[in-house]
Amino acid sequence: MVKNFSRRVLFLCVLYVCIILGIFALQFTRGNAFSLSVGPFMVSAAAREDGAGDPRPELPLHVGAFGLDFFLDDANHLVARRDGGAPVTLDFAGVASSDSRLELSFSRGASIRFAYDKRGDIDVVAVSAVVPEGFSRLELPYRLSRSARLERRDSMALVGVGGKLYSFPGKPLSQGSASAVRNLVIERSAPVVYYQTWLPAKGLSLDQFASLPGASEAAWDRAVEKFASSALAVFRDRITSGSFSEQVAAAYVAEMGRIGMYRGAIEAVPESFKTDPGRTWLTSTFFNDLERKWAGFMTREREERTILAKRLADGNPAAFEFPSLVRYLVDRGSGVLLDDLIRVAGAVEIASTSPLQSAGLLECLMDMRQLDPSRARAFEALAESCERTIASALVRVGDSLFVSRDGKAVDTASSLRVASILIRYGAEMPDRAQWRSVGYLLVTSLLAQADSSAVLPAAFANGPDGLAPASDSLLGPSSLYPLVLTSNTWYPRAKSLATSAGAGIWAWTSALDVVATRPSADSLRLSVRFPQGETHYMVVRGIKPFSRIEIYGMDFRTDPRFESYNSSGYRYDPESGTLFLKMRHKVDVEDVVIHYGTPSPETSEPPAQPAPPETSEPAQPAAE
What we know:
Blueprint: H1 2-30, E1 32-38, E2 41-49, E3 55-65, E4 68-72, E5 78-81, E6 88-90, E7 92-98, E8 101-106, E9 111-119, E10 122-130, E11 137-144, E12 149-153, E13 156-161, E14 164-167, E15 182-187, E16 192-197, H2 217-241, H3 246-258, H4 262-268, H5 271-274, H6 284-287, H7 290-314, H8 325-331, H9 335-347, H10 355-371, H11 377-380, H12 383-392, E17 394-397, E18 400-403, E19 409-411, H13 412-428, H14 434-447, E20 456-457, E21 459-463, E22 466-469, E23 474-475, H15 477-484, E24 493-496, H16 498-501, E25 506-509, E26 513-517, E27 523-529, E28 535-541, E29 548-551, E30 554-556, E31 569-573, E32 578-584, E33 589-595
Antiparallel strand pairs: 1-2, 2-3, 3-4, 4-11, 5-6, 5-11, 7-8, 8-9, 9-10, 10-16, 11-15, 12-13, 13-14, 14-16, 17-18, 19-21, 20-23, 21-22, 24-25, 25-28, 26-27, 27-33, 28-32, 29-30, 29-33, 31-32
């Protein structure tokens, strides 16, 4: 009995060993498992070892991402089709991957590529194909994964995974059962199909705005001119009475310059204001005293950079509220902060940003495309999400349009800044032209609320009875002027010269234009446009030490008294790389040519600053 039992145990042990060996043999014959993770894509397949001992993927093959399983097996193949012809099965040849891209290769030179991108709050899978010659399309089988579900919204079928929904924009998902096998059709004429996060449309449709009375460029131009005319009347009264701020003086001179009356504006401003020690860099482009006033600008700039650095370090999207942020950082040579900016942009949750922050990101996109195109992609990926955030914040009241984060409160200054960015965005992005109409309408709607003195409430409240001032706080015409007349170059501004002169070079100016060129490898020409016979003052930052400088085609020497001469002149601070220029225009466009390198013997000692022909004594600034 015991002997029979021992034989039975031995038999079973031998049987189990044979079964295990058989399984190993079967696996070796039919292939081992192959798995790969590429970004969000999970790839699994059978595999055989190639001659080098590496696994070679074979069918069945699965590529899974966001609730979909693209698969191939003995019954489901990648199929190529001709128009009106029979399908042709393509054989699977291999897998290649890099970063967040995955490529499947097939016979006849066909291939399917999966690429992942994150665009704000949207996950995007691009499925692209190389269709073999002679065929019009490929058909790739897929089905829903076990964790996914099929949801219907109105007439749409969507894939639900967790709390998110996904769809094929422009390619409706068939509404069969969740387990049904579907084919993704990729045409030769449109070789890329997108599968991405689906978000319900919020806010107002942009198409409805273009036909409204205030949405045209002509309506915007009329509203701006009406505001400028009303504002100028207020400015004149303030200047005449002698009771005005520096902001009023800056806006007054800028507007007078815009309508061709610059000389009259300079003469109308009292001498007591021009010599006031409390005056700042804001009006130094008109009234000189550049060096002393510039110290205040540098103090403010240090404070701004400290605030920006902290916001970027904290990942605070409030950083995108800073005007012309990319240009500011490029002009200041802030490479580290630019890197931080890209990092914050990649991590920001667009859905939680304010309309101004989203508009600021669009401004970053436009400026980065011009200054550093290689980095623009970080912002291009966010554009659609930013547009959606702004669109959801639009509030229509009759034929007027306003921006409100909560649908109730409207901030006037922020709204005007959003509007100016949208006008530019619609102009520079041909496929986004509707945003230009939105920007126009926002401006005309707000300016329609101004009184006869060009004054607006700082905020509005949108209630059951329409729009009403939210507080007693008001924005006067001098505060509104640079927000409304954004293209008036007479108003003192920072002019970036980075695209032509190099990063870090910019000007503080009221010139109609400043163009930088490089006549040679060791020279820089600044061509400055301003009315003939008039004088303006300009600061140029980022200028490296130079050997000589030409104005009027003559070599000039630096002179601390340059602002008092009845001629052009300059002072240079090598420690900060700052060039202070007085430009008295003999012609509309005056050139300042800066020469670097070692000077030749005949130019090593430039003559003293030339005195004007009519006098050898310094002229008083007020006499100009």
